[in-house]
Amino acid sequence: MSKILIRGAKVLGGEPQDVLIDGRTIAATARQGEIDWSGSGLSADGAEVVEADGKVLLPGLVDLHTHLREPGREDSETVLTGTRAAASGGYTAVFAMANTFPVADTAGVVEQVYRLGQQHGYCDVQPIGAVTVGLEGRKLAELGAMHESAAGVTVFSDDGKCVDDAVIMRRALEYVKAFGGVVAQHAQEPRLTEGAQMNEGVVSAELGLGGWPAVAEESIIARDVLLAEHVGSRVHICHLSTAGSVEIVRWAKSRGIDVTAEVTPHHLLLTDELVRTYNPVYKVNPPLRTERDVHALREALADGTIDIVATDHAPHPHEDKDCEWAAAAMGMVGLETALSVVQQTMVDTGLLDWAGVADRMSFKPAEIGRAAGHGRPVSAGEPANLMLVDTAYRGSVDPAGFASRSRNTPYEGRELPGRVTHTWLRGKATFVDGKLT
Amino acid sequence: MQRHLISAADLTRDDAIRILDTAEEMARVADRPIKKLPTLRGRTIVNLFFEDSTRTRISFEAAEKRLSADVINFSAKGSSVSKGESLKDTAQTLEAMGVDAVVIRHGASGAPYRLANSGWIDAAVVNAGDGTHQHPTQALLDAFTMRRRLVGRDTGLGQDLGGRHITIVGDILHSRVARSNVDLLHTLGAEVTLVAPPTLLPVGIESWPCEISYDLDATLPKSDAVMMLRVQSERMNAAFFPTEREYSRRYGLDGERMARMPEHAIVMHPGPMVRGMEITAEVADSGRCTAIEQVANGVSIRMAVLYLLLGGAVFESKNAPVTLQTRTEEK
Ligand SMILES: [Zn+2]
Questions:
Q1: What integer pLDDT is reported at residue B321 of this predicted model?
Q2: What pLDDT does residue B327 have?
Q3: Would you call A204 and B202 a contact, using CB atoms and an 8 Å cutoff?
Q4: How many C-beta atoms lie closer than 10 Å to residue B34's C-beta?
Q5: Least CB-CB distance to A208: which of B109, B118, B208?
Q6: Which of A93, A271, A381, B131 has the maximal Cβ count within 10 Å?
């Protein structure tokens, strides 16, 4: 197997170190220039050298919330293009949401998605199974069969739709305990969001767009943490977007309820003021909220109330966004800009250091999703799932350069800090000097 | 002011007064035996209606024809147009035919804004009502009607509506007319009070430049104009109010309530009226109700808007009102 010596990388943002990868694992790490080979049986002879030159080395990022669209919507993304986008963004594992066509509600579909990920080799793909058959919220899908399949599903979600029936949600929470699974809830009370087009508030009142009230998210989260407490299960909240949701999760954690929560990069940066342009590139579900919510989300991510950043990478073809607001699809791509947005909103603001970023974007998501071999420390003996980011870089986002098949980014032309330069999946480079291998 | 008319909020006070004054000039044309000006001869305007509205469409059409424009009516209703991308496709198709202006009515809030700002077409865009967002020519014709009735046809020239109290009653939540009127009336110095049951007022309304009241009777005695909005009885099924009867008892305008208004005060309605719901026949047919005048004024306002957008004169606030005597082709 090949050897790679990464020289002078700030591991988790610390002092520069040298890191030697041997085959699929990290063989040694030490302060720059001080690896002591004597007696280790190791040597860097013949290793390919990567001069990190002060870049930050992090464990490969893990995304608990990706829409890869295959099978069914290969016009917007495939497992291949989506995992290439993931590698470009520094990810080594992504969890693929179940709202495909057909829905990933059987062992057959999840195994197909899993195998495609293995075949292409850019990034591990861990399929998420649907909670209910066809995401219809009525009948539990064969959760156990999906868990026992080759895909080994542990995360279940009807994302895109809320499991709004309290009894179905309760049963799902209970049932997956048998194999350590977790239900990831897309919290959206359906009746309160009929015809919803954007956050309900000052801007929606002026624009005459149907409101998506914060309470539609918060009421479901409140119900679900109480259900999780009652049946002693763990529950994960997808794309938490409001200040009120933060308060509920904080309260639930203080009661010892086993709840985890994610926030998307776009909810950390953008507000509903952008909707004034009626440009559907800002149309997303849950919707962009207010400045006050953005600040609450950042603080909650910093203090650990929100556990992780997840992209909710949602590719859509051009024509689904090149139209009037009401007709447009909801969602934005995010894998290739996530780390830059987190750097801008959390690191450059002093809210989180790079070790904190590693925790929120790698360690914790891997732990919640039980992604074996991912989210591990950067130390000898661990799988070489790593990524390098040039944190000093500043540049504007050019969607033409995306590896994703879709271009529906809200950041086109926006200046963002940081650029991923390298990604290694079990010692194999998937992304080198800004280019996919 | 831009080359489009998308929202009443985009108009400065001077823009608005210029449109109102120009509309007075246009109204004089309507009094002539030949009601036509050559101003837009050779220019093509398309009325692109994705939503049924015969009243608004024929009002624009009358205005366009009186300005001698070539008119194309395109009704998307019933055609294959139903998906989102077809707004762009339809507009581009029409522009390829050499259209100078697009008058658009659309069920989606923001559709005219998208049409004007997405680089899809070069033509001027006039919003003839979009979703629950804006209907700027309606607000202009309402302001025109108020100025005529409350200030005077000739004395009103160059004037705004400073100090007048305007009350708008009804389904504010779903009303583009209410949004446009609040914006324009505020710009023109009027004091606006919105009256509705709390269910029919949008969350976030506190940022609007107006007062809110749930009590119609308390508001009437200080109103110079009371604008009644149509309330669709379907709203009842979505629990916005219990019954039509309860709605009209609490928020409808009947003769008894009208008597509480000051003597000079007028009753307005953008139409179509639902008699017996928000307004009784007695009020609708009284001399204080301006609904029919509003229709006539709508043509003058739309002539003024199209003239100023396309006739070479831009909405440049400092300029004096345009006089049209020299440009008529009366023979
Ligand atoms: Zn979701």
A1: 40
A2: 34
A3: yes
A4: 11
A5: B109
A6: A93
**Assembly ipTM:** 0.89
Exactly one of A63, A164, A312, A359 is catalytic; name it. A312
* CATH architecture for segment(s) B8-134+294-310: 3-Layer(aba) Sandwich (3.40)
Task: Identify which of B321, B309, B263 has the alpha carbon closest to the alpha carbon of residue B43.
Answer: B309
Annotated binding site of A for Zn(2+): 65, 67, 159, 186, 239, 312
Contacts of A26 (CB under 8 A, 6+ apart): A19, A20, A378, A379, A380, A381, A382, A383, A384, A386
Residues paired with B268 in a beta bridge:
B227
Neighbours of ion ligand 1 (CB under 5 A): A 159, 186, 238
Q: What is the CATH number of the domain that holds A128?
A: 3.20.20.140
| pLDDT at residue B325 greater than cutoff 50 | no
The answer on A189 and A229 residing in a single domain is: yes
Is the pLDDT score of B84 beyond 60? no
Do B204 and A200 count as a contact with CB atoms less than 8 A apart? yes
| A159 Cα: distance to centroid of ligand 1 (angstroms) | 4
Chain B residue closest in CA terms to A197: B109
Nearest CA in chain A to B209: A206
Q: Does this model's pTM top 0.90?
A: yes
Mutate to test the interface with A, among B50, B109, B113, B127 (most CBs of A within 10 A): B109
> Residues of A marked as binding for substrate?
67-69, 99, 285, 316
Residue A437 in tokens: 């291998």
The per-residue pLDDT for range B88-121, each reduced to its tens digit, is 888 888 888 889 999 999 999 999 999 999 889 9
Q: Which CATH number describes the domain made up of B136-290?
A: 3.40.50.1370
Residue A404 within any structural domain of the chain:
no
Number of domains in chain A: 2
Query: Residue B254: its pLDDT value, please?
Result: 97
Q: Strands, DSSP E only, in chain B?
A: 44-49, 70-75, 101-106, 124-130, 165-169, 191-195, 211-213, 225-228, 266-268
The chain A residue lying nearest B110, using CA atoms, is A278
What does the pLDDT read at residue B81? Answer: 52
Q: What is the pLDDT of residues B137-165, one digit of tens each?
A: 999 999 999 999 999 999 999 999 999 99
For residue A388, the enclosing domain spans 3-57+381-393+413-436
